[in-house]
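To: structure subgroup
Subject: Chain for Friday's discussion

All,

I'm putting the inputs and outputs inline so they're searchable in the archive.
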Amino acid sequence: MRARRPRALPQACAGFVAEIGPAILLPSGKLLAVGATGNTAIYDPTQPVASAWTAGPALKDGANKTSFPMDAPGVLLPNGKVLLAGSPSPPCKYPSPTTFFEYNPSTNKAPVVSSPSGANVAVFQTRLLLVPTGEVLYSNNSSTISVYKPDGAPSAAWKPTISSAPTDLVRGHTYVLSGTQFNGLSQACSYGDDAQMATTYPLVRLTNTATSKVRYLATSHHSTMGVATGNTTVTTNVTVPSDVPAGQYSLVVVANGIAFNPIVVNVEARDCFLVIDRSTYGQGEIQALINNAGAPATIDPAVYVVVEGFTPSDLGINAGNLANPPHKPSIPDSAGCPWSSAGRSSRKTRLYPTSRSGSPSRCGLSSPTPQCSTSPHRPRRRGSPPASLRAA
């Protein structure tokens, strides 16, 4: 059987320039492809090759004339519809104004919607950006920005979900969030063949429960950049900036302008934790040190008590007592703090006091048996702690 040769796509300006419109992945897994001719098509990857493509609606303006998306933007809205744009004839002269359409996958129609101010430009000059609120910003390459507010709401199945997250966040630390669909179901934003503004990554939004002020946190080291990951658990790292005010917040993960149900977290300025930094607790390693250099074995500092966000006066430290600070860390044996098994690991591990209050004594600096627990949401280590706060 001979392979079928692909056919050349029809062009609005044959022999002049090859242009395309946007291509948007829909929540259904189908693709909406928009041609520069004003025709659209739907690709269904679940169907056989011969029947995978079906016709979409032609883009017609208010006068029922063809609108040409010659280098044009498109945005998947949180309600599942797609905002599109096009310019009138003759397309090869890139005329104005720009007309806007809203494609509805349920009806396979794309009726005209109202245009923003500043739409008296050729469509190739327009840009559309989906923002975390679910709204769309419109720009015509000028300093004027318009906002499009879609109706309806996303399906619950489209939302990202959080399965694991810390409830206490310390400023300046990075944490791991786990859940599903952190990258959304689509790239959501597309533009002809020139511009890129995809939203295939998670954003984390904090809203202060007392002041309602909003802060977005940077994310990084995503476990995947894939979209529509379904029930597969994915992760991302989120960093809390040092200038976020302490207090109670609601936290959401946002993808494709769709947010998960909020969880309550506390942002704190102070922290206290233990760091296990070496693996020289094992009996074999101790014996090896004795065999090499004699008894007693000399061990580098291995367990650190780290405090952050305290002033020297909070800790009773001054220039005269640096060599012998008043609050010395006290590290109990494994009966007092359950780190013995973790201590035999060669990986750096942190053990957290269950209390992160503002009192240094409650952080284990003067208590003979601090209450410690391991935490799966470990901040990244940011250098060795001060010598005055180390215990070997």
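Points worth raising on Friday:
The first strand starts at residue 20 and ends at 25.
The longest helix spans residues 283-293.

D.
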